[in-house]
Design brief:
About 40% of the residues lie in helices and about 25% in strands. By secondary structure, the protein is of the alpha/beta class. The chain folds into 2 domains: about 250 residues, Alpha-Beta Barrel (TIM Barrel), CATH 3.20.20.70; about 70 residues, Arc Repressor Mutant, subunit A, CATH 1.10.10. Its main location: cytoplasm. This is Heme chaperone HemW. Probably acts as a heme chaperone, transferring heme to an unknown acceptor. Binds one molecule of heme per monomer, possibly covalently. Binds 1 [4Fe-4S] cluster. The cluster is coordinated with 3 cysteines and an exchangeable S-adenosyl-L-methionine. One of its GO terms (cellular component) is cytoplasm.
């Protein structure tokens, strides 16, 4: 019998209490009363993939959103229980859930642990009350600290905090304080993102009207480098552009994306990569449920990856990782020599001091971390 294919599973929960000013994710505020019909559809989608996933071993599950923790925990439990019945779940499966402070209590967290969830991500974004208000967050800093303490009490030791730098009005002192608090709380994983102003968000509209002044690049980069240095000094390894972990606490699910491992996405707007094909689900709650009720997989678009697509994705996703990309692995996957295919690109990027080559491995330099998009464009 051939070995099973290790596969990630993503489950999308599109509900949230309110829409943050910067958010462009597929999420909907004020519609939690539709949760029951949505989760019924989600369970039917799991059934639709029962036969497809017979030879796949699920070794990571990520429940994202939206804010999964804003819905009743029974829905999360029912979906996970059905996954365990219908799919092959690894005994060592990493199961993560995203949450917001103010939506967690000990009963909910204990229920998560009983259902097998062993990693929780809590969205802090900023420690200062004025910045939380500016971002459109509804929680307080006290809510965040209480949520971390409750998560630990419920038995979670794998806890991530999401934080943002480069926020208008944010100072370097604000950023340093935010990181210091996380270290003091003994968080095991930190995801630190530079604020991006996206079209269609409140911040995007404000920028268009001239009501928002973006942070200067120099301050944004100084904040980034401060995070790298400060977190390294406090026992965190930067293993990806925006992610820092204590030893043994890297996010295995996100590594499936960066290493181009297969994953199945369930729920409205979820994306998948299975057997060389990328596909995405119907985006709105209504269109998603409608497809499911017709007995159809709710797929909106499909795209078969050509050889050149697979090679390209391996390069620009792999270079996000601090360990970079490896020629031995490249040869095993694609039967060709990475240094031959990208000889000119590597030479140019090396001259610009954006990458370093060490034996079989190619990775970003500190300057390359700052100008990563310039590097990635060479492989798109």
């Amino acid at each position: 019998m051939s070995p099973m294919t290790k596969t990630g599973l993503y489950i999308h929960v599109p509900f949230c209490s309110s829409k943050c000013n910067y958010c462009d994710f597929n999420s909907y505020a004020g519609r939690i009363d539709e949760a029951e019909s949505y989760f019924e559809a989600l369970k039917k989608e799991i059934e639709l993939y029962y036969n497809t996933m017979e030879t796949n071993l699920i070794d990571t599950i990520f429940i994202g959103g939206g804010t999964p923790s804003c819905v009743n925990q029974k829905y999360i439990n029912e979906v996970l229980n059905l996954c365990k019945i219908k799919f092959n779940i690894s005994e060592t499966c990493e199961i993560s859930i995203e949450s917001n402070p103010g939506t967690l209590d000990i009963e909910k967290l204990t229920s998560y642990r009983r259902s097998g969830i062993n990693r929780i991500s809590i969205g802090l974004q900023a420690y200062q009350s004025n910045l939380l208000k500016y971002l459109g967050r509804r929680h307080s800093t006290d809510d965040f600290i209480a949520s971390v303490e409750l998560a630990k009490k419920a038995g979670f030791n794998n806890i991530n905090a999401d934080v943002i730098f480069g926020i208008p009005e944010q100072t370097m002192e604000d950023w340093a304080e935010t990181l210091k608090v996380l270290v003091e709380l003994d968080i095991t994983h930190i995801s630190a993102y530079s604020l991006k102003i996206e079209e269609g968000t409140r911040f995007g509209d404000m920028l268009e009207r001239g009501e928002l002044i973006q942070v200067e690049d120099e301050l944004d980069r100084n904040m980034y480098h401060y995070a790298i240095d400060f977190l390294r000094e406090n026992g965190f390894e930067q293993y990806e552009l925006s992610n820092f972990a204590k030893e043994g606490y890297q996010c295995k699910h996100n590594l499936t994306y960066w290493k181009c491992v297969d994953y199945l996405g369930l729920g409205a707007g979820a994306h998948s990569l299975l057997e060389g094909e990328r596909f995405s689900n119907k985006y709105t709650i209504e269109s998603y449920i409608d497809s499911i009720e017709k007995g159809l997989k709710p797929v909106e678009e499909r795209y078969k990856l050509e050889f050149s697509d697979k090679v390209s994705e391996y390069m620009f996703l792999g270079l996000r990782l601090n360990q970079g990309v490896n020629n031995s692995e490249f040869k095993k996957l694609f039967g060709q020599d990475m240094f031959s295919i990208y000889e000119e690109s590597f030479k140019e990027l090396q001259q610009k001091k954006l990458i370093e080559i060490c034996g079989e491995r190619v990775s970003l330099t500190p300057l390359g971390l700052d100008l990563a998009n310039q590097v990635f464009m060479k492989f798109v």
